[in-house]
Design a protein that fits this description.
- This protein is α+β, with helices and mostly antiparallel strands.
- It has a single domain, classed as Arc Repressor Mutant, subunit A, CATH 1.10.10.10.
- The chain contains 4 helices and 3 strands.
- The protein has a 3-stranded antiparallel β-sheet with strand order 1-3-2.
- Helix 1 crosses helix 2 and helix 1 packs across helix 4.
- It is elongated.
- Pfam families: PadR.
- One of its GO terms (molecular function) is DNA binding.
- It comes from Actinoplanes campanulatus.
Length: 114
């Protein structure tokens, strides 16, 4: 699963959001590292809806414009949980490989290093 897809599904895990809300949530979740453009977001939302991972919960008109709220489906929640577990395993493998190496900011030192 691509990182933007993971972040979109994560943004929708807690509550339904409209497009701008998803964009803002992704920025927050990624600590500013991922900034989705509207065209990219709506293409991803269409694809995720086709895959049954999200669905439109409701639509409302705001200042003459249609605002569509998306929610995570049960299949989407399952896919997100599976991906989160996969990433957890990969992170644990990386930490295990780094445990005996001095890595600034990682909190471990190589054996014999004071």
């Amino acid at each position: 699963m691509q990182e933007p897809t993971f972040l979109i599904l994560t943004a929708l895990a807690a509550q339904p959001l409209h497009g701008y809300g998803i964009i803002q949530s992704v920025i927050t979740l990624s600590e500013g590292e991922v900034k989705l453009r509207p065209g990219t977001l709506y293409g991803a939302l269409d694809r995720l809806a086709e895959q049954g991972l999200i669905e439109v919960e409701r639509e409302e008109a705001v200042e003459g414009r249609l605002r569509r709220y998306y929610r995570l489906t049960d299949d989407g929640a399952s896919a997100l949980a599976t991906e989160a577990e996969r990433l957890r395993r990969r992170a644990a493998a990386a930490e295990a490989q780094l445990k005996d190496r001095a890595v600034p900011g990682f909190g471990h030192r190589a054996p014999g290093v004071a």
